[in-house]
Amino acid sequence: MSPGFDTLAAQPAGSSERDALRATGAEFVRREVAPHLQAWEDAGEIPRELHRTAGDLGLIGVAFPEEVGGGGGDLLDSLALQEAMFEAGASSGLMAGLLTAGIALPHIAASGDRDLVARFVRPTLAGDLIGSLAITEPGGGSDVARLRTTAVRDGDHYVVNGAKTFITSGVRADFVTTAVRTGGPGHSGISLLVVEKGTPGLTVDRSLRKMGWHCSDTAELSYVDCRVPVANLVGEEGSGFGQIADQFVVERIALAVHGYGIAARSLDLAAAYARDRETFGRPLVANQTVQHTLVEMRRQVEVARTYTRAVAARHVAGELVVAEACLAKQTAVDCAAYVCDRAVQIFGGSGYMHGSEVERHYRDARILPIGGGADEVLRDLTAKLMGYAP
C-alpha cells in the first residue's frame, strides 16, 4: 500500500496525503490504463492483472477500514482518487469494472463477520479476487422489494433459485453478493448471500453487449438449485433490504463522480481541440459560439462537482443526505449528458469516430441516469423525502 493511505481519513481535501493519492491514481491511469483502454473496450473486459496492480497500490480499498484490509480512508478520499483517475483519462466503464468492490463488499465489511471478511473482502481489496453485486432481476428494474430469487433453508445450506441481470463484473466475478428472498413478500423477506463461482447451478447465461461501458463486463446470471452454505449469509436473515439501502447514498455519490468526472475530461479535450483546430483560417475557439459553449460546459461541471463534494462531506460528517445524494446524482448525470454531447459536437466528425475518447464518454454517459436508481425513481423518492409528495 502506498505511503500515506492509512491516514487519509483525517486529512483535509488539500492535504499532502490526499494529493499523493491523487498523483498515484493519475499515474496509474497514465501508465497502466490509457495505453490499453481501447483494446479492453474492444475485448469487452479488463484483465485480472489490472486488479492486482491496483490492489498493490491500495487503490481498490482506499475507503475501506484498515481492519478489513483497506486503507482507512473515507468517501472524500475515494472521490479524490476517482476525480484524478478521470482527469488522467479513465473511462466510466473502466472505473465500474475495476472498482466493483465498491458495491460488492461494503455489506460484507460492515457485517463484521471475520470469516467472510477473510474469504472475500481482504483478497478482493488486494486485487486477487473480483466480486460483484446481484440485485436487479429480469423484469424487476429498480423495485428491490419485489425480487423473486429465492433462498430456502435446507440444513446447513440455502437452496437458491432465480435469475439476475445487468450484473457489473458478473462474467469475471469469483463471487456474487446476491440479494435473495429468504422470507415472505416485501422488504423484510430479503437477505444477502455470497454465492461463489463454481457453485453447481450458478451460470453466466450471457455476457451482455451494451451501448457503452464496453470494457466493463456485464452478465445475466441464473441460479438453479444452488446450494450455498448458511455461513455465506451476510448479516442477519431478513436484513438484506436495509443493508442495500444503507449503501445507496455512497453508490449514488459515486455515480455522480462518474458523471462530472467524464464531463470534466470531455471539456478539457474539447477545449484543447478547439484551440488547435483551424477552420476558415483561424482557431475554432475564436468563434464566439464555441467560447460560449465551453463556458456553459465549465459551469455545469463546476456546479455538479461542487455540490457532490458538499453532499459527500455531509455524509462523512454523519448527516442524513439521502435526498441530497439523489439530487447530486441527477445534477451530475445531466451535466455529463450535456457536456459529453457538446464535446462530440466541437470535435465534429472526429468526435463521432469509434475509438475517439469523447465518443467513448458520450456513450458511457447514457447509463448514468439509469444505474443506481433511474432518474424517475429518484425524483419520486426525493419528492417524498422533501415533503413535496402527498
From TrEMBL:
Residues 1-20 are annotated as: Disordered. InterPro entries: Acyl-CoA_dehydrogenase, Acyl-CoA_Oxase/DH_mid-dom, Acyl-CoA_Oxase/DH_mid-dom_sf, AcylCo_DH-like_C, AcylCo_DH/oxidase_C, AcylCoA_DH/ox_N, AcylCoA_DH/ox_N_sf, AcylCoA_DH/oxidase_NM_dom_sf. Its cofactor is FAD. Residues 133-225 form the Acyl-CoA oxidase/dehydrogenase middle domain. Keywords: FAD, Flavoprotein, Oxidoreductase. SUPFAM superfamilies: Acyl-CoA dehydrogenase C-terminal domain-like, Acyl-CoA dehydrogenase NM domain-like. One of its GO terms (molecular function) is acyl-CoA dehydrogenase activity. GO terms for biological process: fatty acid beta-oxidation using acyl-CoA dehydrogenase. Residues 238-384 form the Acyl-CoA dehydrogenase/oxidase C-terminal domain. It comes from the Bacteria. Residues 16-128 form the Acyl-CoA dehydrogenase/oxidase N-terminal domain. One of its GO terms (cellular component) is cytoplasm. It holds the Pfam family Acyl-CoA_dh_1. Belongs to the acyl-CoA dehydrogenase family. This is Acyl-CoA dehydrogenase. It comes from Nocardioides eburneiflavus. The lineage of its organism: Bacteria, Bacillati, Actinomycetota, Actinomycetes, Propionibacteriales.
